[in-house]
Amino acid sequence: MGKVTFIEHDQTEHVAEFKAGSSVMQIAVDSAIPGIDGDCGGECACGTCHVIVTNEWFSKTGTPGNEEEQMLSMTPERASTSRLGCQVVLTDEMDGMTVHLPEFQM
Amino acid sequence: MPTLPRTFDDIQSRLINATSRVVPMQRQIQGLKFLMSAKRKTFGPRRPMPEFVETPIPDVNTLALEDIDVSNPFLYRQGQWRAYFKRLRDEAPVHYQKNSPFGPFWSVTRFEDILFVDKSHDLFSAEPQIILGDPPEGLSVEMFIAMDPPKHDVQRSSVQGVVAPKNLKEMEGLIRSRTGDVLDSLPTDKPFNWVPAVSKELTGRMLATLLDFPYEERHKLVEWSDRMAGAASATGGEFADENAMFDDAADMARSFSRLWRDKEARRAAGEEPGFDLISLLQSNKETKDLINRPMEFIGNLTLLIVGGNDTTRNSMSGGLVAMNEFPREFEKLKAKPELIPNMVSEIIRWQTPLAYMRRIAKQDVELGGQTIKKGDRVVMWYASGNRDERKFDNPDQFIIDRKDARNHMSFGYGVHRCMGNRLAELQLRILWEEILKRFDNIEVVEEPERVQSNFVRGYSRLMVKLTPNS
Questions:
Q1: For B26, B30, B281, B384, which has the most beta carbons within 10 A of its beta carbon?
Q2: How many CB atoms lie within 10 A of CB B120?
Q3: How many C-beta atoms lie closer than 10 Å to residue B343's C-beta?
Q4: Which alpha helices (H) appear in B308-455, and where do they start and end?
Q5: DSSP label at B419?
Q6: Which CATH architecture has domain A2-100?
C-alpha cells in the first residue's frame, strides 16, 4: 500500500491510497478525485487523465511512450513533467508522490 | 501511391492556391464548377452520383453475411440499424461489403476493434476523407480531421483554442442566457417541432458566436453544414445537386473572405483580437495566411461548422427521444439533478450523432481474422461500438446513472478525438439544467422523423408538448 497526493488547480489536496500495479488514473477514478476523467478507460487514447508530476518524482514514473507523447502534445497545459495517469503504473517506490492536476482536461 | 483522382485534387488545390492572390475565392470556386461540369461532359463522371430511393429494408436474418450493406442511408430511419449491427458484431465483426453504392468497404463494429483502428494512425490513414463516399468532384476541401500527423497536429493546435475549456469558461454565462431565452419563447399550449425551435436555434447561435459570424445571417451556417454533410455521394444524404454545392461553397468563401479581411483591417487599425476562430487563425504563424490556401481555408471552416452543428443539435433532440422511451429515467433525473453531467455522456452514447469515421489502410492489416488490404476503406462504426454488449451492460437501455457512460466512443479516440467535446457537454448540461427549472414534462407526441444519411444520426422533426412546472 502507498499514497499519492493529487493537488487540484485551485490547490485543493486529495490523498488516494494504492496497491502497487494500479495506475494513477485508476486510483484517482476509484477515489472520485475531481479533475481526472479517464474517458477511454486507460487506453492512452483520450488525454483526460493528464497529471503534472512534481519534479522530484518525475524520474520514478519512467518516460512517456510515443502514443502518450502524441496525446500529451494536444493539450495546451502540457508541462515538462506531464504524464497521462493511465500510463503511470504505481510501484512501492512511488509511495508519497505528489502530482498536480491541470486546470482543464482535454 | 496516391490514386488518380487524388492527384487531380492535389493539382487543383495547388492551382487554386497559386491564383488565390489575384482571383477572389468565390470566383475560383465558381470557375471550378464550370471546369468540373466540362470535365464530366467530356470524360464522364468519376463515379456516377448515386440516387437513393427509399424502399423497405429486409430483416437482416434473411440475408447472407456478404449481402449485408450497412451503408444504406435508410437503415437508421427504418429502425433496422440495431439488428444489422448486432449481427455483424456477433458473426462478422470485421466485415467486407464488396459492392455498395459507395464502393467496397470494411466495417469494424466491436468496441475494442474500433478503439484499435482509431488509435493506430500509423496503420490507418484519415486522408483524404472521413466520410464513406466521395465529396462532389472538385470540392475535395482539406480539413485537419482528414489529415494525418504531423500536418494534422499543426492545424488542430492552431484552432483548438476556440473550443478549449479556458475559452468556454468565458462563454458559459452567454450560453445559459441564450438557452433560457429560447426555452422561455416556446409555446406551452400546443405541440411544436423541437428541432428548429430549440436544437437548430441553439447550435446556430453557438456557431455564430464561435465564428463571430453576422448574427442575423446565422441560418446560413446551418444550411451550408446540412448540405455539405448531406451530399448523396458522400453520406447517402438527400442532396444530389452538385451545382448547388458549388454555389454554397462559393457563397461560404465570399462570406468568410469578407469576415477575414474585415478582421485583418480592424487588427491593423489597433483593435484587440477576439477569441473567435478567425482571430485565432490570424494569431498563429502557421495559419495567418490560410486565406491564401482556399481549399484548406474552406475545409477547416466547414469542419468547425459541421462539427458543431449536426452533433450537438441531434444530441439535443436525442435526449428528449431517449427520455420519452425511458420515462423512468426522467423521474430519476428530476429526483437527482446532480446526475446531469453523467446523463449528458449517456445521451451522447445512446444517440451517437455521427455514426462513424472512415480510414484507409496504409498497409495490409490483420484484424478479427480478416486481412484488410493496403488501400481498402475501413469504417469504424461508433454507433455500433456504443451498443456493443461486450463493453456496455444492457447497451440499448438509456440509463442516466450508467457507471461507464463516459467511456462512449462518440467523440472518437486517439489524435482525432473530438476537439469540441467540452463545448458539447457544456451546451447539453446547460440545456438540461434550464429545462428542469421550467418544465415538469416534455412529451414526444408523434413518431420522430429521422434524416436520410449513413453518417448523421439525426432528427428532422420532433413534435413535443411541454408541461410547465407548477
A1: B384
A2: 16
A3: 29
A4: 310-325, 327-335, 340-351, 382-385, 421-438
A5: T
A6: Roll (3.10)
User: Greatest CA separation found in chain B?
Assistant: 69
Question: Each residue of B403-458: pLDDT tens digit?
Answer: 999 999 999 999 999 999 999 999 999 999 999 999 999 999 999 999 999 999 99
pLDDT tens, position by position, B10-40: 666 666 676 666 677 777 776 666 666 666 6
pTM summary value: 0.91
Closest Cα in chain A, distance from residue B185 (Å): 34
CA pair distance B30, B36, nearest whole angstrom: 10
Contacting residues of B for A103, CB less than 8 Å apart: 165-166
Q: Per the domain annotation, does B2 fall within a domain? A: no
A18-47 residues touching B, CB cutoff 8 A: 37-41, 43-47
User: Which grid cell is B232?
Assistant: 448523396
Instruction: Assign B268 to helix, strand or coil.
Output: helix
Residue with cell string 472512415 = B358
Locus of grid cell 455521394: B233
Taking CA–CA distances from A37, the nearest residue in chain B reads B406
- What is the CATH classification number for the domain harbouring B289? 1.10.630.10
For residue A55, what is its C-alpha cell?
519534479
Round to whole Å and give the CA distance between B224 and B308. 12
B106 in Cβ contact with B100 (< 8 Å): no
pLDDT digits (tens, 9 = 90+) for B337-378: 999 999 999 999 999 999 999 999 999 999 999 999 999 999
What pLDDT score does B462 carry? 98
Name the residue range of residue B12's domain: 7-466
Q: Return the pLDDT at B20.
A: 67
Question: Which residues from chain B sit within 8 angstroms of residue A41, using beta carbons?
Answer: 404, 407
